Amino acid sequence: MSLNGLSDQKYPGRLFCVEGIDGSGKSTQLALLHEWLKSEGYAVKFSEWNSSPLVRNTTSRGKKKQLLTPTTFSLIHATDFADRIEHEIIPFLKAGAIVLCDRYAFTAFARDVARGVSRRWVRQLYRFAATPTVAFYFRVPLDVALDRIVMGRPDLKYYEAGLDIRLSNDPLESFKLFQARIVDEYELMVDEFNLTVMDATKTIEDQQRQMRSIVKKYLPRHRRLAGAKQDRELKSEAKEQKSDAKAEQKSA
User: Fold this and answer.
1) Which end of the chain is less enclosed by CB atoms within 10 A, N or C?
2) Rounded to an integer, what distance in angstroms lies between the CA atom of residue 246 and that of residue 155?
3) pLDDT per position as a tens digit, 134-185
4) Which domains does the chain have, with CATH numbers?
């Protein structure tokens, strides 16, 4: 699988990501997978969507003042993603670690297009993204996901509800319409990017068993860690990869 415009560069590590609409249960499954991989002795790096400190303050201010247009929102998330790719994801893949991503470029492909951004443009914007070993898509009926979200969040935020694209003045109705658009985009991507579909209506235990069964096929046997010392050595190696990348940029 390769993202449009991306060459399939190979790394010693493995990259697994989870995708799906809010309320699909993907984060729960990734957390369980994370703990299992660590218990099996693998070095694991976790990376989360929209978590780079580089754009955190800008994003917060833009959301608070409702200044973000669909295009600026897309560019800010791409900047966040690029920063994490350079400083978290690629260095650890080069060092041979297992990298787990709670949302990947496919989130942008779904949400940004749902907001009216060009499908072709946003795919080209993320052409620098490393190709995942496996990209899991947690498919869930929209009404089930909405029930889970409404139960856990009494108040929907402005951008979360999609109020910025004027689908409805009612936050809950806007959220439903926005999420429906996102689902449509995910479904289009299943074949385009060969996403591994997970039935998110199954029990947590059944989903985790299936997920582990798939992941096991791709795990490197020679990268197990005997203890904390080797874990530190791997992190040190990843740090060296970051330094090498910066040196290459300066000499370019």
Assistant:
1) C
2) 43
3) 999 999 999 999 888 887 776 888 998 899 999 999 998 999 999 999 999 9
4) 14-221 (3.40.50.300)
